[in-house]
Design a protein that fits this description.
Length: 338
């Protein structure tokens, strides 16, 4: 039996686990999936089960009696794979939990935002750590319903085929996986995409509406230009994933609406309901990952002497919103510029 534990089972973790559970037959003795997360979600799922939907038409429901959702960490003791889905700021704490409870032979797969989590885990753990990247956005709609609003294949760095059983199950669940020898360039490409999370969260708009507004895109063009300048100075080369070419993104953001809509129709598949995870964090009064997203650009900018005023301003605005704890501030585009 392959035992999988999802540690930090929030929106991404529940969606991925729900998709896998949806293709498992009742009484299946070959795979066991346990979700470990917050009491709030445990209550919702014990009451409603899990429903996973996406913009392509996926709609699957898993009854609550078929789901193991725990708030303690004892399920880690015999897990073969631990899918780590905690926020980047919680990585060190998660490593301590894994060190205390997990099997020394377990494989840790980081499905987190940011570019430094796998390195942090490797420094703190003896278990093998696999870099992963989830390109799509998942928004929790309440009552156990997790909706995926954007597209993309899960990516993992697995040159030795250690994750083959997991990859097989994900693919069976219609969650295709791309395998890489080195995921670094992919992670920085995802970081570029995630730089919009702050703009989205501060705007209060759904992703599609926000990106459809040229004033917010002009802000994003500045954000992306700063990031690419920093990467150039640091010798970092984000790679193309899917249809989006990183170095062209600032140019795309500058397009007038009618041209942007044409380009977006062929390259960016976004559900009208989709929102960033950072928006959800602000609405729930949780700390965001801003230090590991736009904050990473600011940090690299200081290291390589590249000015990043717009990213720095976004970091300040998000932290101010966190401190106020009143949800998203619904700022106009011009308020996002220093």
């Amino acid at each position: 039996m392959t035992k999988i534990a999802v540690l930090g089972a929030g929106s991404i973790g529940c969606f991925v686990a729900g998709c896998m559970l949806s293709v498992m037959r009742q009484g299946d003795s070959t795979v066991q999936i346990t979700l470990i997360g917050r009491e709030r979600l445990q209550h919702d799922i014990q009451t409603n089960g899990i429903t996973v939907t996406d913009f392509k038409g996926r709609s699957q429901h898993i009854a609550h009696e078929l789901i193991q959702y725990r708030t303690d960490h004892h399920s880690l003791t015999d897990a073969d794979f631990i899918l780590l889905c905690v926020k980047s700021q919680d990585t060190a704490h998660a490593a301590a939990v894994i060190k205390q409870f997990a099997n020394p032979t377990a494989t840790i797969v980081s499905l987190q935002n940011g570019v430094s989590n796998a390195q942090t885990l490797s420094q703190l753990l003896t278990q093998p750590v696999i870099k992963g990247m989830v390109p799509f956005n998942v928004f929790y709609q309440g009552k156990g319903h997790f909706h995926c609003g954007t597209e993309g294949d899960i990516a993992i760095e697995d040159p030795n085929g250690r994750c083959q059983p997991l990859v097989h199950l994900l693919s069976k669940a219609s969650l295709p996986v791309s395998i890489y020898q080195d995921l670094t360039g992919v992670q920085y490409a995802k970081l570029i995409m995630n730089l919009n999370n702050a703009v989205n969260a501060l705007s209060g708009l759904p992703l599609k509406a926000q990106l459809g507004n040229r004033q917010y895109r002009l802000v994003m063009a500045k954000v992306l230009s700063e990031a690419l300048a920093v990467f150039s100075a640091a010798g970092i080369k984000p790679v193309r994933t899917g249809k989006v070419i990183p170095k062209l993104m600032p140019i795309i953001m500058l397009l007038p609406n009618f041209l942007f809509n044409i380009v977006a129709a062929s390259t960016l598949k976004i559900d009208p309901q989709a929102r960033s995870s950072m928006y959800e964090d602000l609405m729930l009064g949780r700390r965001t990952e801003i230090d590991f997203l736009n904050g990473e650009i600011v940090r690299l900018g200081k290291q390589y002497h590249v000015k990043t005023p717009v990213n720095n301003h976004l970091v300040s605005l998000v932290k101010a919103a966190e401190a106020e704890n009143r949800g998203g501030p619904n700022l106009a585009a011009n308020q996002l510029l220093p």
